[in-house]
Amino acid sequence: YQLWTLFLTFLCYTSYHLSRKPISIVKNELHKNCNTTDHNTTANCSSWKPFDGSDYESLFGDLDTAFLFAYAGGMFFSGHIAERSNLRYFLVLGMLSSGLMTALFGLGYYWNIHTVAFFVIVQAVAGVVQATGWPAVVTCVGSWFGKGRRGFIMGLWNSHTSVGNILGSLIAAAFVSEAWGLSFIVPGIIIASVGVIAFFFLVTEPKEVGIVMEEKSRTDSYTVQAEQSTRLRLFLGRVGLCVCLPVCHQDKPRTAGWMVYVFSLLVVVLTCRRNLNPFTVCSSLSEDYSPSVSGDMSTLFDVGGIVGGFLAGTISDFTGGRATCCVVMLVLGAPMLFRPPCCPTGMLAALGFLVNGPYALITTAVSADLGTHKSLKGNAKALSTVTAIIDGTGSIGAAVGPLLAGIILNKAGAGQRAAQWDNVFYMLMASDVLACLFLLRLFVKEMKGWC
To answer: 118: pLDDT confidence band, cut at 50, 70 and 90?
Structure first.
């Protein structure tokens, strides 16, 4: 059951990421760069209205912002809903809805839709339904695996993010030049099909098949007096959202520590998810890369991310230092964020390794550790809420990132655009350093424990 749950949830979230990827590949087809080699040999180099104007970057920013803010907002609510509902139904409904919205964007090609409002609305709704996936799959895996192996297991399992990005890039790139609508429709069909499989075969928690896990049985030793409920107030910085969970009085100071990870993820995801999009960077910095070539190159970042997530989880299990592992990788990754003259394959893979490692560790193993903390009264489904809070807060960083990059790039004059990308990468380096500062207290604490 453990291996089957691991495999099926891996497949589910791979399809989630697969269905998110097409938009980044198709952008260069919606607004074509006629200076590329591919388009120089083609008589027709017309872009897709309304993205054919000089304000195309602003419109693309609207699409990204609509999705990311809707995703972030939906994530805060999806955790609460998942905690109080049947996880199988919740996950499957989200996958079917995600497939529908992904395909609907692609149908705009065949329906000849040129209204920006249509694409923005579809992206916003897609963001909300995409938020159903992460809390559900992490809760399923966290229910089946104990804390001692979570770093290794979830480091390996979290490669679904990179695998989904790779497959999504390859599938979208295969259709983008001929009929970009298929770049969305095919992934939409895939995620809906995987959702049907999950409906019939996913076992969300051990008790569904009469199994009692060891860590759960230990929670029986808690007395009623020790379980006196209090309100754990999680003030999420500027978000201003207060989430209340039942905790034991003895463990309030410990549980408050997850705020460090919440804010750390805010800046890590700003670096990882959107700003550091190898497809966008490579296609923007060089006129030699067509949409299909840029899409293929972007997979190298995700290949490095697979290895980074796995090693980060394994090392943190062995050493017991989640924060230390994150800090080391962030420190090594910051200098590599400076833009090289081109986009060498080795640099993209190494960058994916160092950036995705902390991201994978915080969103999986750390989320599971906090969500199944004994202060939460042994309520395994509280993991849904904790996971949603962490990933939802990080998604706000992913939404703010493109806005900041757009502001910087819009200051570029004629012939200065490549130079302005340097400033974007300086911003990314600063966000990386800021993430280290948020983790500094836990890093020092772990180091003292080893000395």
So the answer is: very high
